[in-house]
Structure formats: structure tokens, C-alpha cells
Amino acid sequence: MSSKAAQKQAAPDSPQRVLTGRQFMLGDHACAEGALAAGLDFFAGYPITPSTEVAEHLASRLPAVGGRFVQMEDELGSIAAIIGASAAGARSFTATSGPGFSLMMENIGLAAMMELPCVIVNVQRASPSTGLPTMVGQSDILQARWGSHGDYGIVAYCPSSPQECFELTIDAFNTADRYRIPVFILMDEVVGHMAERVEIPEAKDIPHVPRKGPRTAPGTGQFLPYAADADLVPPIAHAGDGYKVHMTGLTHDERGYPSLTAETHDKLVHRLVDKVRLNAADIVDFEEQDVDDADCVIVAYGCTARSATAAVTQARAEGLRCGLLRPKTIWPFPEARVRRLLEIGKVKRFIVPEINLGQMRREIERLTQLPTLRLNHAGGAMPTPNAILEIIRS
Q: Is 307's pLDDT higher than 80?
């Protein structure tokens, strides 16, 4: 079901799909509202702390505006259901946490191979395994990039506030449809359970990127479901549109049929990677604070960036030339901006505070070859501004 069809199906006196105006809500609820504003048609999920509030919120809100909500038997069924819904044309969505994210990895690779757009929210908690289910973590960063087997392109957003939970969820749906990829929203428990003001624009002002459809009529036999355009993204035909479409996780040709040769595989996988890599400049999003003259730059994301912001403000008040680079897009990583900071030549060191044992730090060290100081915690608590400030002073 398309988003337009879902809106038509809703009764005239049904609740608003977009809760326009100033709201006060949890990050999890803001994420759910962002999905609704983006045109969410179908949610399938299984309750798991600390993402359960996303599903609970949508359980009542989504059916009321003409969408479909299904509580699945587990996370394996959840990811399979949203992939199937995407093949039928729905904007589809699920929410989970670390253990459920692990269970979804095989089918995330299937979605990447079949080029079916969908959005997966992972509200991170302290891990591995069951860990600390109700406490914060940021240890799924590398899993998001490399969790499923093989090479493929994905995008992962990382909000630092309920406002960004709303905004980046909309971006996630548009990016998924534009590039035909699974897209992740890597929240964390603190941001998911934080209540703040959220400003929601008018529905007409919310961007909506439609999927690129076939340019030939159904029944002509001319449509090739995996023949990519110059942007490396093929047009998509959905189940029920009248086109002959074959989807498989096997290596396939432009018709979608298995073509089990090394040449076909190399060409296909390069395209799956390059449609994200070569469009990184249009995808990557970040914010900065005081980096132009900084000799020390903090790289922080999610709830940790909130502590880092306060630390940088205090460091500047003390006369220390410190700045903050805050990626909103974790993958692709803002490599071009980091390299530009190196070209300017003022930065002498980086600091990477994380609620893990150094997953983003590895990326900074790979790119910069500069001293990278770290403040790591395995999970359960976020770093304080004072702890980050002490490292800046050192």
C-alpha cells in the first residue's frame, strides 16, 4: 500500500498523520512520529527494551491513520515481514535493540541484495548478549556497517535529541527509497528515553522522495528490474503493478534471474557498494562547533555528543582551542570533512568519547594517522562533560 493510499483509507475524522506544531515527547515516540510523517505504511516488530516505546506508540497511531501494525513472533519474522511489505510498495519499518539487531542481520543482507528499501531502528543498550537491557550503550556501530556477510552499501543515522529522532527518521525513509537500500537509525537508550521539545512542521513542508518507477508500460516485456540508471539505482516495480519481476538473494542479472558467474557477481556487488559510496556527498550529514581554529577536535555522536558539546563550550571559555565534529550520519562516515580538517593543518589531535571500547576511534585513526585520545566506557553510563573536559585539558 502506498502512503497516498493509506491516507485515503483513513476516515475523514481520523487522527492526524502529522502532529504539526510544538510537541513534548520521548525520543522513541519522536522516531515513531517521524516515520508516520514520512508516510509509513507498515510496521512489523517484536518488543525489546529500550525500543519498545516505538512499537507501543505505533500500535495505536499507525492503524488510526490507515497503516498496518503487526506484532511478530520474533525479530527474524519482523525483518522478513518489512522486506516483503517493501516489495509490495509499502514504506516499511521495524524497531529493535542489540540482540534483535543481531537476529536481523541475515535478512538485512537479503534486502541489500534484492535492493528493497526499508528502515530499521536500533535503540542501543549495554551489550554484548543480554547485557544491561535498560541502560545505555553505543556498541553496535561497527555491527551496523559490517554485520551481515559480504560487501554492500548501507546508510546509518545517529540522532542526538528527540528532535533529530523525528527529522532523521524522515531522512532515513527518503534515503532508503532513493537508493533502494536498508537504512539504519542508531539511537541509544538515553536519547530514546529522553523527553524534549520537538517542533513538527506542516505536512506540506515535510520532504518526500518517491521511489523511482519503471519508464515502460507493464506487459511490454521491456522492463529489466535490475538495469541501473546513471546513479547506479534501478527503477523498482512492485508486486501487483503488472510487471514481471523475479527477486532472489542469488547473484542475478538485470532480469533478476540467477547468473552464477564471477563476472556478474563482481559487477553487481560493486554497484551495490558504489551507489552509496559515490553518492556519499549527498548523504553525509554532520554538525560542527568551533572547528575552524581548533588544534583539538572531539568526534562524538548520539547522547555522548551532548556531553561533548558542554565540554567544548567550557574549554573555549578557558581559552583552549577545541572543537566538535558531530556526525549525524555514521555510515557513510564524513571522511571528506575529516580530511579537510587535516588539510587546513591546525588539528594536532582528536578525542573520541564513546560508550564502547573504541569503535569510532578506529575510523578516525585510519583516516588521520594522528594521536587519538579516547574516553571509553563499556556501557551503562554516558561520559560526563567534566570527564571529556579533563582529557581536553591534558
A: yes
Distance CA 352, CA 307 (A): 12
Average pLDDT over the chain reads: 94
For the chain, the domains span 3-205, 287-393
Bridge partners (DSSP) of residue 331 are 156
**pLDDT tens digits, one per residue of 194-222:** 999 999 999 999 999 999 999 999 988 88
Q: Which pTM was predicted?
A: 0.94
CATH of domain 287-393: 3.40.50.920
HEC assignment per residue over the chain: CCHHHHHHHCCCCCCCCCCCEEEEEEHHHHHHHHHHHCCCCEEEECCCCCCHHHHHHHHHHHHHCCCEEEECCCHHHHHHHHHHHHHCCCCEEEEECHHHHHHHHHHHHHHHHHCCCEEEEEEEEECCCCCEEEEECCCCHHHHHHCCCCCCCCEEECCCCHHHHHHHHHHHHHHHHHHCCEEEEEEEHHHHCCEEEEEECCHHHCCCCCCCCCCCCCCCCCCCCCCCCCCCCCCCCCCCCCCCCCCCCCCECCCCCECCCHHHHHHHHHHHHHHHHCCHHHHCCEEEECCCCCCEEEECCHHHHHHHHHHHHHHHHCCCCEEEEEECEEECCCHHHHHHHHHHCCCCEEEEEECCCCHHHHHHHHHHCCCEEEEECCCCCCCCHHHHHHHHHC
Best CATH choice for the domain 3-205 from the list 3.40.50.970, 3.40.50.620, 3.30.56.70, 3.40.190.10: 3.40.50.970
